[in-house]
């Protein structure tokens, strides 16, 4: 456990060397065009460095190298037990560099250093090691056949995987995909968000240090409309995995159809309902969870509990508890270990969040907490965690994903009405139910159209449980053994004896 202070982290930030180049075939390299973009910290607006702005030419180089090393078998045909050992070494290197990676994550994305240090980097390392540990324990199948036939069902790596990951959990989301993609023997071209590319760039070198052959993992920083589009349209990318907005997810599906029908696996947006019944076992715990569910990671979470559905009979008792709990989530300098709410990722996202707050006012919702930009003098992008009461589920703030700390409070009278409101959204990523009635908990959970449902808690689960959504929240699953389905092809081999 580190005992570094804010002053320590600030000194390390001053001493930090930023690597902003792409990583192709085991080497850091400038973009073919020579173009770069500025990497600005949301903490205080400082310029962290110049980052390579990759485009189609860089995608071509990376995919060619990824394909060549895949075809060579240096990684794809390596014994699963040897890939496992390498993946575990890779995870160990993340742990060894935990403070450096945490600092990069916080400076780049704005999240509190305590979260980067204790949640993001350890979680990323676990995703790599868990997938690696599993790979030599997955068995293929023998079909039921006549005595003179042998039917084999085997899994093979798909080949070249393009992975496009978001800016809110840059390292963790990357490793949720790198873990199973690499463990199954694929080559990967990873495109981090241009808003937070630094940790992805850094771990590429750690992968080679761990023993992953050059060319197996390539990292291309750049914009979605340039290098992201190039990967999505590339005829030699076999599978594309993505976490991000529903709008972009839909566009990637079009690109698949326009190119080689590459497999597309998408984890998109959410507008998750957090349902609190009058018989919740602990209203104080539910209130604290509701505050955490909207304020953690500045509300920049696809599963954020952005719609708080409260049974009408307890609303006047429960809402003050939530407002009080939210007072414990106060934006501050992310390099201070005591800070639990950092900066929004950039000015564009801050302005988006503020525009939704204005929409809440315009549509007639009642502001009962927060609602303003603060700490403007720092040069950073900070917005108070915000609560609107009196929200109708038809309002913009209740229907659209804000990706910021803005909570909509909606009342209901019956379990049936709660389910109807909860499901009345294009999304279906996550939901929570608070009740002491076991039958009500099960029946409500079954009725909710969401990929994850938590009971008497918010955001439960670990690497053993699949993560993904229903409806326009996407398809496919990260985490768990189910994630391996995205990165392998099933082959049936039928042999006459």
Description:
Strand 17, helix 13 (396-399) and strand 18 form a beta-alpha-beta unit. The longest helix is centred in the N-terminal third of the chain and has 23 residues, at 113-135. The chain has 497 residues and is an alpha/beta fold. The chain has helices at 6-15, 56-72, 80-96, 98-109, 113-135, 170-183, 198-210, 224-233, 246-258, 283-295, 312-326, 347-362, 396-399, 415-423, 438-447; strands spanning 22-24, 27-29, 36-40, 47-52, 141-142, 149-157, 160-164, 187-191, 217-219, 239-243, 263-267, 273-276, 307-311, 366-369, 373-374, 382-383, 386-389, 406-412, 427-428, 430-434, 452-455, 470-471, 488-496. Helix 2 (56-72) packs parallel to helix 8 (224-233) and helix 3 runs antiparallel to helix 5. The strands form 7 sheets. Strands 14-17-18-13-12-20-21 form a 7-stranded mixed β-sheet, sandwiched between helices. It has a 5-stranded parallel β-sheet with strand order 9-8-7-10-11, with helices on both faces. The model has no long low-confidence stretch (mean pLDDT 98). The protein has 2 domains: 16-268, Aldehyde Dehydrogenase, Chain A, domain 1 (3-Layer(aba) Sandwich); 273-462, Aldehyde Dehydrogenase, Chain A, domain 2 (3-Layer(aba) Sandwich). The relative contact order is 0.13.
């Amino acid at each position: 456990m580190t005992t570094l202070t804010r002053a320590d982290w600030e000194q390390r930030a001053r001493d930090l060397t930023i690597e902003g180049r792409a990583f192709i075939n085991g080497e850091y390299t400038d973009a073919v065009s020579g173009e770069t973009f500025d990497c600005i910290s949301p903490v205080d607006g400082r310029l962290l460095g110049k980052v390579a702005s990759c485009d189609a030419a860089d995608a071509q180089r990376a995919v060619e190298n990824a394909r060549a090393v895949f075809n060579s078998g240096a990684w794809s045909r390596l014994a699963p037990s040897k890939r496992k050992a390498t993946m575990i070494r890779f995870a160990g290197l993340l742990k060894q560099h935990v403070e450096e990676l945490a600092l990069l994550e916080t400076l780049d994305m704005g999240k509190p250093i305590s979260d980067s240090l204790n949640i993001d980097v350890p979680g990323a390392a676990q995703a790599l090691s868990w997938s690696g540990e599993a790979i030599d324990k997955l068995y293929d199948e023998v079909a039921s056949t006549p005595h003179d036939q042998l039917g084999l069902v085997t899994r093979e790596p798909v080949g070249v995987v393009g992975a496009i990951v978001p800016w809110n959990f840059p390292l963790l989301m990357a490793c949720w995909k790198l873990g199973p993609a690499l463990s199954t023997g694929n080559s990967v071209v990873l495109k981090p968000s241009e808003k937070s590319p630094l940790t992805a760039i850094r771990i590429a070198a750690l992968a080679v240090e761990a023993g992953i052959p050059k060319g197996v993992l390539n990292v291309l920083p750049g914009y979605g409309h340039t290098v992201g589009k190039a990967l999505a349209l590339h005829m030699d990318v076999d599978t594309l995995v993505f976490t991000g907005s529903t709008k972009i997810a839909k566009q990637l599906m079009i690109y698949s159809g326009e190119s080689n029908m590459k497999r597309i696996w998408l984890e998109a947006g959410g507008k998750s309902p957090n349902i609190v019944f009058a018989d919740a076992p602990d209203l104080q715990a539910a209130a604290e969870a509701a505050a955490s569910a909207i304020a953690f990671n500045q509300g920049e979470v696809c599963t954020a509990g952005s719609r708080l559905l409260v049974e009408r009979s307890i609303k006047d008792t429960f809402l003050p508890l939530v407002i009080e709990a939210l007072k414990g989530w106060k934006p501050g300098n992310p390099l201070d270990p005591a800070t639990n709410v950092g900066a929004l990722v950039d000015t564009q996202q801050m302005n988006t969040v503020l525009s939704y707050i204005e929409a809440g006012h315009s549509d007639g919702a009642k502001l009962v907490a927060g609602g303003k930009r603060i700490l403007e003098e720092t040069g950073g992008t900070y917005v108070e965690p915000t609560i609107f009461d009196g929200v109708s589920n038809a309002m913009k703030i209740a229907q659209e994903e804000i990706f910021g700390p803005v909570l909509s409070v909606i009342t209901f009278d019956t379990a049936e009405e709660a389910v109807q409101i909860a499901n009345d959204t294009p999304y279906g990523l996550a939901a929570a139910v608070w009740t002491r009635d076991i039958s009500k908990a099960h029946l409500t959970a079954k009725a909710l159209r969401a990929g994850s449902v938590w009971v008497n808690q918010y955001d439960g689960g670990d690497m053993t449980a699949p993560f993904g959504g229903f409806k326009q929240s996407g398809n496919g699953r990260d985490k768990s053994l189910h994630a391996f389905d995205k990165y392998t092809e099933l082959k049936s081999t039928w042999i006459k004896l």
